[in-house]
Each structure stands twice: as structure tokens, then as C-alpha cells.
Automatic annotation (TrEMBL):
Keyword Nucleus part of the UniProt annotation: yes
UniProt similarity note: Belongs to the RNA polymerase beta chain family.
Tree of life domain: Eukaryota
Subcellular location as annotated: Nucleus
Record domain RNA polymerase Rpb2: where: 158-265
Annotated source species: Wuchereria bancrofti
Keywords from the UniProt entry: DNA-directed RNA polymerase, Metal-binding, Nucleotidyltransferase, Nucleus, Transcription, Transferase, Zinc, Zinc-finger
Name of the protein in its database record: DNA-directed RNA polymerase
Domain (DNA-directed RNA polymerase subunit 2 hybrid-binding): residue spans on this chain: 2-156
EC class (word): transferase
Pfam families to which the protein is assigned, alphabetical: RNA_pol_Rpb2_6 (PF00562), RNA_pol_Rpb2_7 (PF04560)
Length: 274
């Protein structure tokens, strides 16, 4: 058995986590000279959003200043004696802000930042989830024959799932065309024919001219052009092409198998008002 050991520097996309279960993805690598620094000249190693677990960092900062350890089990503190109040008083005794905030200076222009920033000690570890082993790229590839959507799986050359959170992010940014491109144009875009008279999608069928018309025709050239025709109405003048996801057509067929009719309201292009 041969084991390989390679040294990898952290890159964008690598995963880190604290000892308290706060996972995070490296989203940007700032140069050292551009990092903010405190009044004592300390430069942070990691910058993350203020929604993280700050109490652990407050406990680590207080423990580093007083040289002691603290019990962090969930039954030590209660509503009357909170953890933030306990560690806040320890930080005040050490000469720091009650919440552990410090004045920071910009590493770009050296100006003092208007808002005090939380600055503390947290042990962060690197996880094995590295982007160099997990990245996935796809332009074209295999699709599911039923849904026409890209198959899943990196080994199969499948696509990357565009989930609900990605959808909500696109909606929040107002990127409607990008959302349509990801979930519709590049996924399972299909052309369905709907009868505007009865609202049926599964009753339309592509067929040629009637045989009786062919037999009664005196011309030697018979019209073999094909058109979409509704089998329920027996006419083809109100059949409209509609762009829908392929899974929607699959849903309509599944509901029809359970005696549930889905009636679609469409308007013929000739009847639309200018």
C-alpha cells in the first residue's frame, strides 16, 4: 500500500471549522498588507460574518488574558447568569471592551474604522473537504430520458444541482433572466402543444391531412404537411405551442393516469390584443 502526502496551501473553496462546529468556506484570500489591524498591531487570520458564535471567542480571549480555563458545558449558565455577562466582565477586568470589540484600522489606507469590530481568539482547523478534489464543471452531457434534465453524479458527468437556496438568492438579486436560464433553458425546456379550446395538453397529436381529403383530391401532389391536432375537439385551429418544463408534461400525464384532469388556460396568438 502506497500513501501519498502532498502539501496544499489553502485556496478559495477550501473548508474550515472551529472546535465548536462552526463550518465555513474560504471565500477570499486577502494579502497581508491589506488586512485590518488593531491598535496593538495584531492582524486577524480569519474574517467571518457577525452571525457566528461569538461567545466561544470571548471565552478564548478571556482565558488567554487571565491564563485560566473555563467550563463551557450548557448547565453552567442560566438566564440570570448568562455566559456573555460572565465573560464580558472578565474582559473588562483585563482592560478590554465588554463585548470584546476593538478599534481596527484599514490596511489599505490606514484610516480608523468607524465601527468597532469584534476581535478574539478561536481555534480553527482545516478540514479534508478541499475544492481541488470536489470541483465539478459541465457544459453539455448526458440527460435523463424521462425528464430531459441533466443526470446527477460527478462520475457520470452530471450537472450541479441548482437548489432552493440558489433560487432564492437569484430572486433576492432580481436576476430573473439568469434564474430562467438556469432552471428552464439549460435544464428541461420543452415545447408542448395545448388546445386553447378544451385546455388539454395530452390530447394533442401530430398528424397529417385526413385520408379522405387525400382520396378526394384530384391533384397528383398530395399535401403531406403535418399539424398538431386535438383528438378531443377534432380540430387543429386552436392548438398553440407553449414552452414548459418537461417535468410539467410528466406531471400532467401522471395526474391523467389517476383520473385528474389538468386544464390549462391559454390564448391563441391571433386573439391576443395588441
Amino acid at each position: 500500500m502506497i500513501q501519498w502526502r502532498t502539501q496544499r496551501n489553502p485556496i478559495i473553496g477550501d473548508k474550515f471549522a472551529s472546535r465548536h462546529g462552526q463550518k465555513g468556506i474560504n471565500s477570499f484570500l486577502w494579502p497581508t498588507e491589506s488586512m485590518p489591524f488593531s491598535e496593538s498591531g495584531m492582524v486577524p487570520d480569519i474574517i467571518f460574518n457577525p452571525h457566528g458564535m461569538m461567545i466561544e471567542s470571548m471565552a478564548g480571549k478571556a482565558g488567554a488574558m487571565h491564563g485560566s480555563t473555563y467550563d463551557s458545558s450548557p448547565f453552567v449558565f442560566n438566564e440570570k447568569k448568562t455566559a456573555i455577562d460572565h465573560f464580558g466582565q472578565l474582559l473588562v477586568r483585563a482592560g478590554y471592551n465588554y463585548y470584546g470589540n476593538e478599534t481596527m484600522y484599514s490596511g489599505v489606507d490606514g484610516r480608523e474604522m468607524e465601527v468597532q469590530i469584534f476581535f478574539g481568539i478561536v481555534y480553527y482547523q482545516r478540514l479534508r473537504h478541499m475544492i481541488a478534489d470536489k470541483f465539478q464543471v459541465r457544459s453539455t452531457g448526458p440527460t435523463d430520458p424521462v425528464t430531459l434534465q441533466p443526470v446527477k453524479g460527478r462520475k457520470k458527468g452530471g450537472g450541479i444541482r441548482f437548489g432552493e437556496m440558489e433560487r432564492d438568492a437569484m430572486i433576492a438579486h432580481g436576476a430573473a433572466f439568469t434564474l430562467q436560464d438556469r432552471l428552464f433553458n439549460c435544464s428541461d425546456r420543452d415545447i408542448a402543444h395545448v388546445c386553447a379550446r378544451c385546455g388539454s395538453m395530452i390530447s394533442t397529436l401530430r398528424c397529417s391531412k385526413m385520408l379522405s381529403e387525400r382520396r378526394n383530391s384530384e391533384n397528383s401532389i398530395v399535401n403531406h404537411s403535418e399539424r398538431e391536432m386535438c383528438l378531443l375537439c377534432g380540430k387543429d385551429d386552436q392548438v398553440c405551442p407553449v414552452e414548459v418544463p418537461r417535468v410539467f408534461r410528466y406531471l400532467v400525464a401522471e395526474l391523467a393516469a389517476m383520473n385528474v384532469r389538468l386544464q390549462i388556460s391559454v390564448k391563441h396568438p391571433a386573439n391576443l390584443s395588441q
